[in-house]
Amino acid sequence: MKALRLEAIGDLFVREVDIPSPGPGDLLVRVEACGICGTDRHLLHGEFPSTPPVTLGHEFCGIVEAIGDHVSDIAIGARITGDPNISCGRCSQCRAGRVNLCHALRAIGIHRDGGFADYVTVPRKQAHEIPLSLDPVHGAFCEPLACCLHGIDLSGIRTGSSVVVLGGGVIGLLTVQLARLAGATTVILSTRQAAKRRLAEEVGATATVDPSASDIVEAIAGPAGLVPGGVDVVIECAGVAETVQQSTRLAKSGGTVVILGVMPRGETVEIEPFDILFRELRVLGSFINPFVHRRAADLVASGVIEIDKLISRRVSLDEAASVIAHPPAAGEVKVLVVPNRA
Ligand SMILES: [Zn+2]
Ligand SMILES: [Zn+2]
C-alpha cells in the first residue's frame, strides 16, 4: 500500500509499504479520508515533537477491514473515526482523569503510523463507530471538532453568552458553530480574509470583523463597539501573537479567554498581568480532546455541523506531501487526503 512517511525532519514522501496486520486489540482500517492539519506542517519542520520514521495523519476515518485478537464488539465493515491520542491509563494524570495531560501520551500519526495511507491500524478503544450513511469524508472532521469541543466545554459559554472567535481557519469556523450550539447569541469572528468572514457568517457568526481594517479591540469592546465593555468569552483559534495579545483586551471584566490556537513552542507575547488581576479574567489553555471524541462523532453524525463548506479540496496521497510542505493557500480551510482505494 501507499503511505506518506515522515522519514526524518524535513523529509516527507510517499512510499510503498506492507499493509499492516492488526495486533491484539487493534483494528485494521481502510482509510476513507484524512485531514491535513497545521500540526502536520509543524511536524515536517520539527516544530512539534515526533518520532520519525512514521506515517503522518491524525484526522482520519475509514472502514474496518480486519480485527485483531481480543476485539469482539465491532464488526468488519463498520465505519469508524479514530481518536489519535492514546493515554497510558496508569500515570498520575491519567488516574486523576486528565488523560490529555498523560505523561506517556502517544498519538497516531505522530508517534505511530497514521492515516495518510491506504490502511491504518487503530486500537479498538480509540475507534468510535459512525454511521455508514454518512458522507465518507465527514468522519475526518471528528478529531478537529473534538479539540474545539473541549475548548467550548472549558469556556463556560451559557445561553445568551457573547463570544469572540479569533481566527477563520477550520478551528475557528468549527468553534463558531459549537458556540452557537452551546447557546451563545452573539458570536463575532475576526479574520483578515474576506472569504473566511463570509464563510463564518454562513455557518453562524452573528458578525465578523477585519483586523486589518480597524482596531478590533475598539470595534468590538470599545464604547461604540459591537459589545461595549467586551464579551463573556474569547476563544483564540489563530495561534499568532497578535491575536493572543488582543484576546484578554476583548474579554469583559470577569470574562474568560481560551487559548485553542497553537503558537510555535518558545514564542512569547506581551501581556499585562495587572489587567488580568484587576478585571479578574480567566485565561485557560485547551489541549486536545479528553473524553470528547464520542460527542464530536455524534455531532458529525447528526448533521448539525456544516462541514461541506469547510472542505477546500480533496487530494491524493501523492499530492499530499507538497500540500503539507507549503503554507495554506489564501481562503483555504481544510484539505482532505483521499487515499487510493485498494
Ligand atoms: Zn490536527
Ligand atoms: Zn497516562
TrEMBL record:
Signal peptide boundaries: none
Enoyl reductase (ER) domain mapped to chain residues: 7-337
Protein keywords: Metal-binding, Oxidoreductase, Zinc
Gene Ontology molecular function: oxidoreductase activity, acting on the CH-OH group of donors, NAD or NADP as acceptor; zinc ion binding
Cofactor: Zn(2+)
InterPro entries: ADH-like_C, ADH-like_N, ADH_Zn_CS, ER, GroES-like_sf, NAD(P)-bd_dom_sf, Zn_alcohol_dh
Keyword Metal-binding: yes
CDD domains xrefs: threonine_DH_like
Coiled-coil portions: none
Family: Belongs to the zinc-containing alcohol dehydrogenase family.
Listed name of the protein: Zinc-dependent alcohol dehydrogenase family protein
Organism: Ensifer oleiphilus
